[in-house]
DNA sequence: GGCTTAAGGGGATTTACTTCA
DNA sequence: TTTGAAGTAAATCCCCTTAAG
């Protein structure tokens, strides 16, 4: 069979043993035959990319190439068929994956040794690592996108909720202000005050914050009497309206983006940033 | 037909080596 | 003879693309 002929050599022995053995651990990989003990440190190229017959005499850079590597490359001359693309065997992929876990960058010596172990050309190993890095990066980006999207959705939810709360509070302030003016003008309140409650408010009648609770309790009191405690009319300073208090009312349409910006400056742990600094979230999964 | 993946090719960068003033 | 800058070639990377399985 044509396909089996490629791997039908002694170099596959170690690789095929993986079928019946457990995948070597990281340390085993590092300590085992993945590394060339006698390889020359001055080796800078791969057999598949360099024509050694031409270059050896001209460039001293390539004068110390391992002769075993040359023999190994020559073994492919007889049956290497570049026109046919073949998938790597599962065992080969498994071995490469393990090696990738150790280090996703490929040193020349390691490339040659891996090629030897797997019965592949060094160039094939290099290409596999390149493609593998690309796949890794793609998956990483997908993960990061999902994370950012969920954060964005949560932020959007929170901002919408805050916007509603803001509208509700403004409504309450407005009603209280009206009530206060009536008191100042000497017009007694003839009937219990009926605050205008939006459908949204009707759905959620729970307190928003401590400060809003104070205002809410004042308005939503069933008997309509304000909780000014001692009945001192001079307590009106509590709700003394100032022009600055309603500055946001003038540009309600700008309220949303304004909220968005400001809420990032003082985020609470339970808010949309999940308690992490904003600048840190973008790099959660980026360890590439 | 769509998906995965081996492989090709181009551009950028790094590194080792050579040449020359 | 030594030295540093400039030039060159090879290797490798990433990115995009193609095509086989």
From TrEMBL:
What's one Pfam family here? Homeodomain
Where are the annotated coiled coils located? 138-179
Q: Which InterPro entries match?
A: HD (IPR001356), HDZip_class_I_plant (IPR045224), Homeobox_CS (IPR017970), Homeodomain-like_sf (IPR009057), HTH_motif (IPR000047), Leu_zip_homeo (IPR003106)
Give the species. Penstemon smallii
Name of this protein: Homeobox-leucine zipper protein
Q: What does this protein do?
A: Transcription factor.
DNA-binding region range list? 81-140
- Classification lineage: Eukaryota, Viridiplantae, Streptophyta, Embryophyta, Tracheophyta
Q: Which family, according to the similarity comment? A: Belongs to the HD-ZIP homeobox family. Class I subfamily.
Q: What is a single molecular function from GO for this protein?
A: transcription cis-regulatory region binding
